[in-house]
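User: Predict the structure for this protein chain, please.
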Amino acid sequence: MIVISVANQKGGVAKTTTVCNIAGIFAEQGYKTLITDADPQCSSTSYFFDDLLPQEETLAAIYQGDITEDTIRRVIRPTRINKLDIVPGGFSLSAQIWEIMQDRSSGLRLREFINLVGKIRDYDLVFIDCPPDIGLFTLGAFFASQYALIPIQPERLSVEGVKQLMAKITEFWNMRGEQKPQILGMFVSLFQGSIKSHKEWLPIIEQICGDYYLGVIHNASAIKQAADARSLLLEDRRSRKARPFQEHLKLAKQIKAKLKDYGEDIKPRKVL
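Assistant: Here is the predicted structure, written as structure tokens:
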């Protein structure tokens, strides 16, 4: 089971949109996939559920008591996409942050949960949607993950923030004594070719990312419309040849290629 945190300390960079659409693509291709919504805003969850869920049936449950097989049964839910499940986010997590921080084991709670999931469920991929910060829940996601995937908006503040994030991730995993590369890759999100500064930032970002660079996803009304409708791009069969879906499909291929470079050669299962 490969666990990937999708993180950026800046909000509004299409992190959640990417998590849900990429996870959906992997699931459709035959990979048993789990989204874990670690962002108290619960944006990933809103793609699949209209109403608030009881907190004991969300990620909040892992911070409220012992993590057991019953916890996993309660919080992992199937989605309408075959082979795609989700751990819904807990809206109460932000309000409970002070109480959670009093527990010295809180930073390792998500790792404990993910490790138990790996023992009793047979997922191929787990994507963790992180909050737009480097706080308790993002650090907890890093502890639970093998890799990080980073979206970058082609703007100065976003690029400077990514430089800081890369340094923090490198420092974090050096402290853990990990040997293999832990940044899986980075990609440009919300790119608009009509904006001069975006075109100027693109080669700079490619240089900063180096071998980690995975490509570009353009800003598109189709992506926003799908998000507003709480649907994934793959669910509109008519638009599969259009650029928004094709760019997400290409990014999924790049992720698989990068995982293979790191020795993670996962195989799709039979698609029913």
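Strands lie at 2-6, 33-37, 77-78, 84-87, 125-129, 147-152, 183-191, 213-218.
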